[in-house]
Write a structure and sequence with these properties.
The protein has about 260 residues and is an alpha/beta fold. The chain contains nine helices and 15 strands. The structure holds glutamine. The site of glutamine (GLN) has 11 residues, from loops.
Length: about 260
């Protein structure tokens, strides 16, 4: 009997919890008003913009999105997916916006609308620390290049060096591991993840010469009225210092 009671209590608890956890588009706020939920599509394999800390997705994009949500009076729910699913998810309306260290490109502009740019980045080349052969992008001709599938590193190196030279991985970290194991000669990836991966993995170096320069922005379904709202919120965050505060929490500019 006692056991039955306990089971009921546990089950009731589970039900309450799952009801709360599976709220739909609306969720309650403290003042009793309903808040609309914005679904953010990302690929949480891209430190320091989005990555897991335990069960939680943290990083510059995650925090910026939360602050933008606060300004718009909306709750942000992050959905982690493969990088090359982010734009399709946003383009088809499965997610309300994408925040994924996403570079603005002309081709992507045909599929989604972009916010104002919020961060200038570069594609960097990582090689083994003792590699004396590859010192600049030109030296990549005929070499095996590891990239994360669907990224600008993938797109541009395929254009420049040919499909057969490029080896694609689901995660940037997997490309870096392939480099350590000698399966590829170089990895092309965005500057900040490059720094994180080289710090965390021995025997690698980043070349001084950049491969490309590019700019990050949030993306939206074409003609979404969120674009202007997010641009206004971004402007506010830049003006009130919150933007710089978030970036410098994750990127140590003294070390640049
Ligand atoms: N900036 C690169 C791109 O947009 C990579 C982004 C990522 O891997 N999250 O393609």
């Amino acid at each position: 009997m006692k056991l039955k009671k306990l089971m009921c209590a546990v089950l009731a608890g589970v039900c309450v919890f799952s009801l709360a956890a599976c709220g739909n588009k609306e969720s309650g706020s403290k003042d009793g008003e309903k808040k609309e939920t914005l679904v953010m599509a990302t690929n949480a394999e891209f430190p320091p913009f989005e990555y897991y800390e335990g069960q939680e997705i943290v990083g510059i994009d995650a925090e910026l999105a939360e602050e933008i949500g606060k300004i718009l009076g909306m709750e942000v729910k992050i959905e982690d997916m493969a990088f090359d699913s982010v734009i399709p998810a946003v383009g088809t309306g499965k997610a309300d916006f994408g925040a994924a260290g996403l570079t603005i490109t002309e081709d992507r502009k045909t599929q989604v609308d972009f916010s104002d740019e919020y961060y200038t980045s570069k594609q960097k080349i990582i090689v083994k620390a003792d590699n004396a052969e590859i010192a600049s992008p030109d030296d990549l001709k005929g070499k095996k290049i590891g990239v994360q599938q669907g990224t600008t590193g993938d797109i541009y190196s395929t254009d420049d060096f040919g499909d057969e030279s490029v080896q694609r991985f689901n995660k940037g970290m997997e490309a870096v591991q392939a480099l350590q194991q000698g399966k590829v000669d170089a990895v092309i990836i965005d500057e900040q993840p490059a720094k994180t991966f080289v710090e965390e993995n021995e025997g690698l170096k980043i070349l001084e010469t950049d491969y490309t320069e590019e700019a990050y922005a949030f993306c939206f379904k074409k003609d979404s009225d969120l674009v202007d709202k997010v641009n206004d919120a971004l402007k506010q965050l830049k003006e009130n210092g919150k933007f710089d505060e978030i970036v410098s929490k994750y990127i140590n500019s003294d070390a640049e």
